[in-house]
Amino acid sequence: MSSYQPNNLTRSTPKSVRNIAIMLLLIGGFMVISSIARAQRTLKLQDAIAIAQASSRNIKKSMLNLYGSQRSLDAQRAALKSRFALDITPFDYNRDRSFNDLFSRWNTNEMYNSFANLSVSQPIVATDGRISLINRLGYRDNYSEFQDIRTKTYSNNLYLQLDQPIFTYNRTKLQLKELELNLENASISNALQLLSLEQSVTQSFYTFYQRQNSLQISKDEYENQKISYEITKNKVDADLLAQEELYQAELNLATSKSTMENNEVLLQNAADDFKLLLGVDLTEEFAVEVDIDFVTRETDLNQALQHALANRMELRERAIDIERSQFELIRTKAMNEFKGAVSLSLGIFGDNERAPDIYEVPAVNPRVAVSFNIPIFDWGEKRARMEAAAASREIKMIDMEVEKNNIMINIRKVYRNLQNLENQILIAEQNVKNATLTYDINLERYKNGDLTSIDLNRFQSQLSEKKSIYADALINYKIELLNLKILSLYDFEAQQPVIAPRN
Fold first, then answer.
1. Nearest by Cα to 452 from 169, 460, 121
2. What is the extent of the structural domain holding 197?
3. Which residues pair with 368 in a beta bridge?
4. What pTM does this model have?
């Protein structure tokens, strides 16, 4: 019986099968490389903000609200243009039997109608009136049993009509202004949503970076502890140190490893929160890259306050609320008001049995009507509603003053924090340098046997602590700069406004 020969099997494998195997290996290798590339993806702050803006449901809702407000305003502006309308009734039949009191007899009347109305109507924005040009063309076939007469006639009525309210407010202008304010308010709301999202992403971004940096610091500490452990172990093996020193070194190494593993867990948790905020796949792996070098930014408190009070969108929102309350006051004042209306029309009418001869004997039809609505007594309803609307407007004015004070206070606080953080960063930077030199010196002392492992661990912990404090101070400075940017709407890093100034 022949034995199993792997090499023979390989030689007997068809060439096409080997090619397929090679192709599968290449594809597998490419997938591995791609997964590694994805794992090495690094995000900058602006990249994270762009991803969050594209996936945020609040931003999508805000954009839809902005779009709806814009289209409502477009519709209202379109409604202020000339409107053309054509109404056609091709057939209208009516048969009626009624009693004629004059002749004391019953009469049957049968009538066929066909008519069409063509109108061109133009609102007058300046006066809240409306002017219309109307043409009514009709055909009538009428039969009366009383006189046994059938009449067939064509008629046309062409006239110009003006309807103008008087002694009241301009409703057309008010409605248009309200829609313009709605659009501006939606635009402000969208901008505030974007700024709020930018702030949330930035804070989460830096939190993720802090966890990432803490992990790196703990890894460095762990590597240092491993070096210390090896030194201690070698000295104990050479009977240069007591066995207790090795036990302490092992404890320090285990503690350092535990700290590193704990920081890995904190980093993973921060990564999940960050991914959730960005709206990306939770299985995606990435790191963040931060330009954290400390550069003092020239910030001016008076400039920040002036720019904020002139451009803060929350203040404009309050101003819009006050304008709306003024509109409500106008509407309330118009309740049970004395008002009137003027209606004027002038046209030419003609009728004939033959359509071409409709205007053979034309008739001019002028019309003038003036009407008034005169309230007499409303039991104090209008006065009460006016006082309620005035109180609501006063509340909104107080809210605006409160908003101004809050803005000024918050900017002052952030400015003071920035000044304080600048000093803290300089001190923390010097502390890191000192702690590094101290650790290096004491590491040499430990190598020479002049220092115990407990003392060396204390210097290592001190170095790690100073590094963390320095990194936190830098990040806090970046966050406070962002807060000042959002509060004042002025970017002191780029030395330019965040948004274009309003006209």
1. 460
2. 45-67+176-327+385-497
3. 344
4. 0.68
CA 197: distance to chain centroid? 9
- DSSP-assigned letters across all residues of 176-211: HHHHHHHHHHHHHHHHHHHHHHHHHHHHHHHHHHHH
Could you tell me the end-to-end alpha-carbon distance of the chain, in angstroms, rounded to an integer?
98
How far apart CA 205 and CA 215 sit, in angstroms, is 15
Considering only CA atoms, which of 210, 397, 197 is closest in space to residue 288? 210
Does 160 score more than 70 pLDDT?
A: yes
Q: Say how far residue 107 (Cα) sits from the centre of its chain.
A: 72
pLDDT reported for residue 500 = 62
CATH number at residue 463: 1.20.1600.10
Give phi and psi for 31, each to the nearest 5: -65, -40
The H or E element that residue 440 is part of is: helix 381-447
Q: Which amino acid is at 91?
A: F
The per-residue pLDDT for 198 is: 85
CB atoms within 10 A of CB 16: 8
407 and 289 in a common domain: yes
Query: Rounded to whole angstroms, how far apart are CA atoms 10 and 473?
Result: 64
What does DSSP say about strands 286-288 and 41-43: parallel, antiparallel, or unpaired?
Answer: parallel
Bridge partners of residue 163, in order along the sequence: 130, 343
User: 35 in a domain, yes or no?
Assistant: no
Q: How is residue 311 written in tokens?
A: 């451009």
Q: Which amino acid would we find at residue 394? A: E
Angle at 140 between CA 139 and CA 143, to 5 degrees: 160
Residue 87: other Cβ atoms inside 10 A:
10
